[in-house]
Fold this sequence. Notes:
Elements: H1 4-21, E1 30-34, H2 40-48, E2 53-56, H3 59-72, E3 79-82, H4 91-95, E4 98-104, H5 107-120, E5 124-130, H6 146-154, E6 159-166, H7 174-191, E7 197-199, H8 206-212, E8 216-219, H9 221-224
The site of pyridoxal-5'-phosphate (PLP) has 13 residues, from strand 8 and helix 9.
Amino acid sequence: MISLESRYQEVLDRVNAATKASGRELTEVELVVITKTHPASVVAELMDLGHRVFGENKDQEAKPKALAVAELRPESKASWHFVGQLQSNKAKSVLSYATAIHSLDRASLLKELAKQLSAADSQVSGFIELNLTDDPNRGGVAPESLAMLADKAAEVDGLSILGVMAVAGLDVDPRVDFARAMRASAELQKLLPTATAVSMGMSADYELAIEMGATHVRVGSAITGPRGNN
Ligand SMILES: *Cc1c(COP(=O)(O)O)cnc(C)c1O
């Protein structure tokens, strides 16, 4: 059986190789290990291998897991990225453990974050999520509406916009969607020159995403192994 350690090491090696091949420094690409459906003990094991940055997509699972991990490994701090669709009524809870939110996709969510950030006098990093499909029920903002949402996001005290996030569509060549995300990123940087980050690429396509400009890859099953329905 292939161990968690060897899967993690292989992904790390591939991330580093793809980063070098694209002419960038290793520090320019962040591997966010997505641990959804896996227990806190898996996160603790990855922390023992030196990893610190993890992602989750559901608050009801992420919050207790973040607390459990802090108890299992009190001497080293994990940082949590929230990558799933975020309901406004969960914003306060997510802010209690997450350092970054990859799924900013609408004005009402920004409004709630503004309220909660100001009440707690706290800070969070954010990515504006793009919806590259024709399905409005998928998370994310249409590329045409990116500028409007970015303007609103820039006004939220305590929210620092790092860049854009995209999930490649299931039935398209990821190159097409990654290229669209990179164009949207260039548009965003006209408004917010420091918002240079691009969160794209998952287990099936993270090397391609890095070649095309990703600064954050969200890799789950290639490291943690298969998961049940989620
Ligand atoms: C689950 C998930 C991932 C990781 O998917 P894998 O294919 O397991 O690597 C990345 N991003 C988001 C938003 C996810 O929900």
